[in-house]
Amino acid sequence: MNNEAITQIRAFDRFYTRIFHLADKYHLKTNLTLLEARILLEIGEHHRDTASLLIQELTVDKGYLSRVLKRLVEQDLLRQTPDETDKRAKRLSLTPTGQEQLALLNQRADDQVATLFAGLSAVETQQLLAAMQYVEDHVHLPQD
Amino acid sequence: MNNEAITQIRAFDRFYTRIFHLADKYHLKTNLTLLEARILLEIGEHHRDTASLLIQELTVDKGYLSRVLKRLVEQDLLRQTPDETDKRAKRLSLTPTGQEQLALLNQRADDQVATLFAGLSAVETQQLLAAMQYVEDHVHLPQD
DNA sequence: GGCGATAGTTGCCTTTGTCAACTACAGAAG
DNA sequence: CTTCTGTAGTTGACAAAGGCAACTATCGCC
After folding, report:
1. Which of A66, A68, A75, B44 is surrounded by the fewest CB atoms within 10 Å?
2. Is the minimum distance from the CB of A119 to strand D below 7 Å?
3. Has residue B144 been placed in a domain?
4. Footprint on protein of nucleic strand C, Cβ below 7 A
5. What local confidence, expressed as pLDDT, does residue A25 receive?
6. Total domains in the fold of chain A
7. CB pair distance less than 8 Å for B116 and A12
8. Predicted pLDDT of residue A119
9. Residue A124 belongs to domain with CATH number
C-alpha cells in the first residue's frame, strides 16, 4: 500500500472521528453516559448478558464496569439475577424502565444518522451502503 | 432514509468505532497521550498555531488545553512565542524534538493503517479510497 | 476612553479509568 | 474428595482526564 493511499485513509479516519464526535452525543438529554448507553445497547439488543461479555465487547476495565453496572441497577435500569448454572456469574437484563431508555437512545441515534445523511435519494443511499460495506469487507482486523 | 439503511449505517459506525479503538493506539510506545499526539499533528501538519484554533478543531476545554500545552512545553516538544500583532495570543510551534516525535507518530499511524488494510491489490486500494470518498461526500455535516 | 468580546491561565471539583488485592465459585487432575 | 489453577465479579486506593467559573490582559469598536 503506497503512501498516497495511507494519507487518504488517515484523512478519512480523521473525518469519521469528527462525525463520531458529533454522533456520539445521542446519549445527551438522557442522564446516561456514553458507556452506560452502550451497555444498555449491548444487553438489550445483542444479548450480552454477563459482565465478562461486556468487558470483551467494550474493552473496559472489569472493576470500573462493576461500578457502572451497580449504578445502573440503582437507577432501576438493570437487573442482576444469579446464574443458576454458574454461581460466580450474574445474568444481566434490562428492567422495563431500562427498555424504555434503550428505545429512547435508539430513537436519538437513528435521528442523528438520519440527519447526517439527510437528503440522499434511494439510489445514493444504496451506493452509500455499498461503499460502507466495501470498506468493512476490506479491513484486515487483527486477531485481538 | 428508511430504517433498514439507518440500521446498516449504525452497524458501520460501530464497526469503525472498533477500528479506531485499535488504530488510536499509535501514540503508545511514546509517552504521549492521544490528545497530545493530535495536538502535535494539528500544529505540525495543519498549521493550527494558536490555542483557539486547537480548541475548535479538537473540541476540547480551553482550561484543559492550556494545561496540556504547558506540559508539552515542559517536555520541550512545543514552543509558545508571543504574537506580535495580537498580544493576547501565543504562537505555537514544534521544537526540533517535537518534530521528531511527530515523525515517529506519523510512522506509527501509517504502519497501523498499512496493517489494517494489508494485502489489498492496487485495484482494491483504489476502490477502497473511492468508497471512503463516497461516504465522505455524502455526509451532511451540521453547521457546528 | 469606555465596553463587550476574545485569548489564555488558574483553582477547584467531578468523572472516568487503572491497578491490585480479595472472595467465591468452576472445572480438571490426581 | 481434595487440591490447584482459572474465571466472575467486587472493592479500595489512586491517577488521569476533563468541565466550570473566575480572573487577567488585550482587542476592536462606538
Report:
1. A66
2. no
3. no
4. A 33, 35, 60-64, 85-88; B 50-52, 55, 62-63, 65-67, 69-70, 80, 86, 88-90
5. 66
6. 1
7. no
8. 84
9. 1.10.10.10
Q: Cα A61 to the chain's mean position, in Å?
A: 17
Give the pLDDT of residue A86.
Answer: 95
Mean pLDDT of all residues in chain A?
89
C-alpha span between B40 and B72 (Å, rounded)? 9
Give me A85's grid cell: 448454572
**Chain A residue with Cα closest to B135:** A128
Candidates B19, B137, B136, B1; CA nearest to A113 is B1
* pLDDT in the model for residue B139: 86
Residue B92, pLDDT > 70, answer yes
Question: Considering only CA atoms, which residue is closest to the C1' of nucleotide C16?
Answer: A64
Q: What is the pLDDT of residue A37?
A: 94
Residue type, A102: L
Residue A93 maps to a domain: yes
Q: For residue A67, give the nucleotide whose C1' atom is nearest its CA.
A: D10
- Whether residue A28 is contained in a domain is answered as yes
Report the mean per-residue pLDDT for chain B: 89
Q: How many CA atoms lie less than 13 Å away from A2 in the CB half-sphere?
A: 9
| Helix/strand/coil for A80 | strand
DSSP conformational letter for A90: E
Is residue A36 in a domain?
Answer: yes
Nearest-angstrom CA–CA distance, A64 and B38: 26
Strand C nucleotides with an atom less than 7 Å from a protein beta carbon? 6-12, 15-21, 24-27
Shortest distance, CA A82 to any CA of chain B (angstroms): 30
B82: helix, strand or coil:
strand
pLDDT at position A102 is: 95
3-state secondary structure B28-42: CCCCCCHHHHHHHHH
| Run of H or E residues at B91 | strand B90-94
Instruction: Tell me if A95 sits within 8 A of A76, measured CB to CB.
Output: yes
